[in-house]
Design goal:
mainly beta; 7-stranded mixed β-sheet; 4-stranded antiparallel β-sheet; 11 strands; globular
Length: 114
């Protein structure tokens, strides 16, 4: 089972920036993505990136968030800019392998204060 370890969360003010990182312990991943879950809401896809570095974004984060990936290092990052209160959530990293089961990170809290 691949382990995913997230880092970089915390408290940030509205309009500020934050960078989340996720490192996979192994595996070859077709897609790596970031998801989030706010209190009382379902988990949702925020951004994903393929092995050929094609990125897709949730509409509400387009132009503010950037997903990037280092394939040799097996890492994925989410650079969050101009954050809003509604970005407050637990953020999860996910890795979809070429073969085998999908892996999830343990989640990391991001809190945006006004």
């Amino acid at each position: 089972q691949v382990q995913l370890v997230e880092s970089g969360g915390g408290l940030v003010q509205v309009g500020g920036s934050l960078r989340l990182s996720c490192a996979a312990s192994g595996g070859i991943h077709k897609t790596m993505s970031w998801h989030r879950q706010a209190p009382g809401k379902q988990r949702e896809l925020v951004a994903s990136i393929t092995r050929n570095l094609t990125a897709t974004y949730k509409e509400s984060v387009k132009g503010r968030f950037t997903i990037s990936r280092d394939i040799p290092k097996n890492t994925v990052a989410l650079h969050m800019q101009n954050v809003k209160v509604e970005d407050t959530a637990i953020y999860y990293c996910r890795a979809t392998p070429l073969f085998g089961a999908i892996s999830w990170g343990q989640g990391i809290q991001v809190t945006v204060s006004s």
